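Priority: medium. Attachment 1 of 2:
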């Protein structure tokens, strides 16, 4: 149990022999010394899981969790926040896109943080945990050890290792088998469906962008434990958990209270991806009909359209093979967002028919038809996109068939 209290399992790697054992012993000595500096909580200290509602920014749109330790005797007011990152980090956006941006455990008084969340109209709920004095002390030691400079940074994973999942990790590290944690068991959804619960209506463009970026791993069904990557699910899972205190098995949550209730937000965004792409699809259909009816051969629009499609395809490939997110692989949007449209689309003209272009069109038609099996991924928003692509592929093929073959 003591070893578990040093650091969470994701921060500690113990080799079985040799140099690894020596390093572990040194770490043990260092952290044992550090424990003596953390101080002792009074019997009046309380430990709470604080759940913050979604905010307006993309990074805050799924809510937030912190562990709060408050001791009125010593004046301790520590809210442990595993969701801290810095815009001053070198190559911030590159690291963010690649999934290598380090996140950090930060500590600050809840009384200073709560007004900020309240000003953003984000609800704040406190769940006071049913822990014994020794369990509170162990949890405090684990958190303070995690806050040591050599431990506080970690590699954030949106689904698997974030500000919410870390709450469970440190609690298990402190209380071990005394905790019975079933996870979130009320619904069985995939990771993508969980995202849609928050983003599809509130942030439709963000939802579309995330659906476009993430691949097949996001369609895996989240286990009850994995579903707690969302703070609201974690809060619910805590309500269903039990803790052994002495000879008693008690609910993990002793009491719950709302520290702030957010005002209802009226959805005012009317130009959603569905509205935008269906409107664009209708205009493309009308434009294509006009060109076909008048026998106009002009590929300017197609060069713009398929350049964008190609760029999307190259972005998908970059996220697939050049990032460390773990959820952007096997992205079947690559079927319709064919990367080679850029530069191939720039090799067609109304005066010369490339001998190889017919094969490309046939191949792409097959890929687009295969992509229809993935429609549900985007809540059907991708239907008008596929409709535009199919329409313009037909137009290109029909126009090229009228151009004399010149080799």
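Attachment 2 of 2:
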């Amino acid at each position: 149990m003591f070893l578990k209290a040093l650091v969470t399992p994701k921060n500690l790697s113990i080799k079985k022999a040799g140099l690894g054992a020596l390093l572990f012993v040194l770490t043990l000595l260092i952290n044992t010394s550090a424990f003596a500096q953390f101080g002792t909580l009074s019997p009046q200290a309380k430990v709470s899981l604080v759940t913050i509602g979604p905010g307006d920014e993309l990074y805050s749109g799924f809510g937030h969790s912190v562990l709060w330790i408050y001791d009125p005797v010593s004046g301790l007011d520590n809210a442990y926040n595993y969701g801290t990152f810095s815009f001053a980090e070198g190559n911030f956006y590159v690291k963010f896109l690649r999934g290598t941006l380090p996140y950090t455990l930060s500590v600050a008084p809840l009384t200073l943080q709560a007004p900020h969340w309240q000003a953003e109209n984000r609800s704040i709920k406190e769940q006071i945990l049913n822990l014994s004095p020794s369990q509170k002390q162990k949890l405090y030691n684990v958190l303070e050890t995690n806050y040591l400079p050599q431990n506080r940074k970690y590699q954030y994973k949106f689904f698997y290792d974030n500000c919410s999942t870390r709450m469970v990790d440190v609690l298990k590290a402190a209380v071990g088998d005394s905790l019975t944690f079933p996870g979130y068991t009320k619904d069985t959804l995939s990771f993508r469906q969980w995202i849609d619960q928050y983003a599809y209506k509130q942030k439709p463009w963000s939802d579309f962008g995330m659906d476009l970026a993430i691949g097949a791993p996001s369609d895996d069904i989240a286990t009850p434990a994995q579903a707690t990557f969302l703070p609201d699910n974690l809060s619910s899972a805590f309500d269903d958990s039990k803790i052994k205190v002495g000879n008693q098995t008690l609910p993990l949550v002793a009491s719950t209270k709302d520290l702030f209730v957010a005002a209802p937000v009226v959805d005012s965004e009317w130009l959603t991806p569905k509205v935008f792409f269906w409107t664009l699809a209708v205009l493309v259909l009308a434009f294509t009909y006009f060109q076909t009816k008048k026998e106009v051969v002009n590929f300017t629009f197609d060069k713009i359209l398929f350049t964008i499609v190609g760029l999307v395809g190259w972005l998908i490939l970059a996220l697939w093979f050049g990032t460390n997110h773990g959820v952007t692989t096997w992205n079947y949007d690559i079927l319709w967002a064919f990367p080679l449209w850029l530069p191939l689309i720039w090799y067609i003209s109304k005066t010369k028919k490339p001998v190889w272009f017919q094969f490309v069109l046939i191949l792409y038609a097959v890929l687009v038809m295969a992509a229809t099996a993935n429609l549900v991924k985007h809540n059907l928003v991708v239907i008008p996109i596929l409709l535009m692509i199919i329409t313009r592929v037909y137009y290109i093929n029909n126009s090229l068939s009228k151009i004399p073959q010149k080799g």
